[in-house]
Amino acid sequence: MAFDYNSIIPLISSIALLISILSAYYTYYQNQRKMEVDLWIHKHDGTSMVTFMWI
């Protein structure tokens, strides 16, 4: 085997930790901008799902 489990597991755990930190920052930022995003979505009906995905 090219990789050992002792090197794979910390790598996966560190990537998962990084993803969780980024998602926490993203949800915090999204909660800060939720009112602006909702107002913007109400102005542009029909593309609300695309707007939610891109913001």
Mean pLDDT: 71
Portion in helices: over 70%
Separation of the first and last Cα atoms: 42 Å
Low-confidence stretches: 48-55
Give the structural class.
Answer: mainly alpha
Rg estimate, integer Å: 18 Å
SS element count, helices: 3
Describe the protein's topology.
Blueprint (H helix, E strand, L loop, with lengths): L4 H28 L1 H10 L4 H7 L1
Key terms for this structure?
3 helices, transmembrane, membrane, 55 residues, rod-shaped, mainly alpha, disordered C terminus
Structural commentary:
- The protein is mainly alpha-helical.
- It is built from three helices and no strands.
- The chain has helices at 5-32, 34-43, 48-54.
- The longest helix has 28 residues, at 5-32.
- The N and C termini lie far apart (42 Å).
- Residues 48-55 have low confidence and may be disordered.
